[in-house]
Amino acid sequence: MTASAEYHAGMSQSRRRRPVADGETIPPGDTPPPAGGPQAAPAVPRRRAPTMRDIAAAADVSQSTVSRVLSGVETRVPIAAETRERVIEASRRLAYRPNPLARGLRGASTNLIGAVVRDFSDPFFAEAIEALVKESMAHGYNVVLGHVSPRLDEAVPLTAVLETRHTDAIVLLGDVRVHPRLLEDLRVSRVPVVALWQGTSPLEFPTADTDDRAGIQAGLEHLASLGHRRIAFVNAELPGDFSVREAAYVEFMRARFGGVPDGYVERCPNTMAGGDAAVRRLLALPDPPSAVATSTDLIAVGVLHAAHSLGATVPDRLSVVGFDDIEISSHTVPALTTSRMPTAKIVSYAINLAVSLARNPEAGHEPSIEIFAPELVVRESTARPARRRR
């Protein structure tokens, strides 16, 4: 029997078959099994996922007892240690896995943390998500990701989830204050919220951020110590407190050198192409800068690319400093000097707080701000300025 006929026979077991006479032509699709030959294997029934009812039967207890043991909820009447052990052993033996969505519908803990991300395309947030997932798993939680769309009518991806309490806590990644509807949904929900990188302005939620001013000025101080005076700044066009980074640059230049030279501040999209275009404009100035500081590493990578293509060798003719220390920063040519964002520490703080609030809802969601200090990482993209040609 051919493979196709064998498959057909397996799929048509209910069809009545008759003996075939010598010389008779067998119509396609009507091939009988050979006499004495192997029969088509019966379909293997799909294994049903074990339920609490199965565990109750295996442990010889009620289903409500199983529910109380597996949920870990304290009960007014204590459950005997022997009974608890029997239930846990039965759940392991049956390979029971709770359905987090079903638990959420019942109002029980789902062991899920929702992460609302401002921009999936930004490498900084890719690394932050990785750190968040690792930290969440260390606490026994999985992560549900939601993306904040630029369109206001699509900026509430987790609203339905929040309404049914499918997550135990929400972590905001990136400034989402331009989405008031999303913030309002979070504000009135019962789910605790922790916000990361929302700026230093107080929100209704506990917030963690980096000292942007200190990070920018550390990079500028490094450039000044090398002898640079003509330092330009390229700022990302992003929502929220990214103006703080530009303000820190202006403050430093006024205090150290008396002001900012004309045309030395550029704003561009937070992309490599944006940084490329911005530094081309800077290097075309009558008195171009000898160094460029940027508000993000993504822009700095674009600056390095443009400088190379224009023959402005880094760091011999142009020094470059970034901000964030994303993974690519140590792999550029030359490797990028940058202010390192303590992403792992910030995420660890956020998850610890989110889990604590989820397990102790009575603790409240009082607004607070925790500021983390960045660290300057000196690599190969900065050096003393070249002597100016007369």
Characteristics:
390 residues, alpha/beta, 434 Repressor (Amino-terminal Domain), Rossmann fold, 3 domains, 6-stranded parallel sheet, 6-stranded mixed sheet, 38% helix, 15% strand, elongated, disordered N terminus
Summarize this entry quickly.
The protein is of the alpha/beta class and 390 residues long.
* Helical amount: 25-40%
Give the overall form. elongated
CATH architecture of the largest domain, by name, is: 3-Layer(aba) Sandwich
Mean pLDDT: 81
User: How do the SSEs run, as a string of H and E?
Assistant: HHHHHEHEHEHEEHEHEHEHEEHEE
Number of strands: 12
Any idea of the CATH topology of the largest domain?
Rossmann fold
Give the strand order, joined by hyphens, for the main sheet. Answer: 2-1-3-4-5-11
* Number of individual domains: 3
Question: CATH class of the largest domain, anyone?
Answer: Alpha Beta
What value does the Rg take, in angstroms? 31 Å
| Quaternary structure annotation | single chain
Described by strand count, sense and barrel closure, the largest sheet is:
6 strands, parallel
In CATH, the homologous superfamily of the largest domain goes by the name Response regulator
**Number of distinct helices:** 13
Structural write-up:
This protein is an alpha/beta fold and 390 residues long. The protein folds into three domains: 52-97, 434 Repressor (Amino-terminal Domain); 112-210 and 344-375, 3-Layer(aba) Sandwich (Rossmann fold); 213-341, Response regulator (Rossmann fold, 3-Layer(aba) Sandwich), CATH 3.40.50. The protein has 13 helices and twelve strands. It has helices spanning 3-11, 52-59, 63-71, 81-93, 100-105, 123-138, 159-163, 180-188, 212-225, 243-257, 272-283, 297-310, 343-359; strands spanning 112-117, 142-147, 169-173, 193-196, 206-210, 231-236, 265-268, 291-294, 319-324, 337-340, 368-372, 375-377. The strands form two sheets. It has a six-stranded parallel sheet, covered by helices on one side. α6 (123-138) links the parallel β1 and β2. α11 (272-283) crosses α12. The longest helix has 17 residues, at 343-359. The protein is elongated, with a radius of gyration of 31 Å.
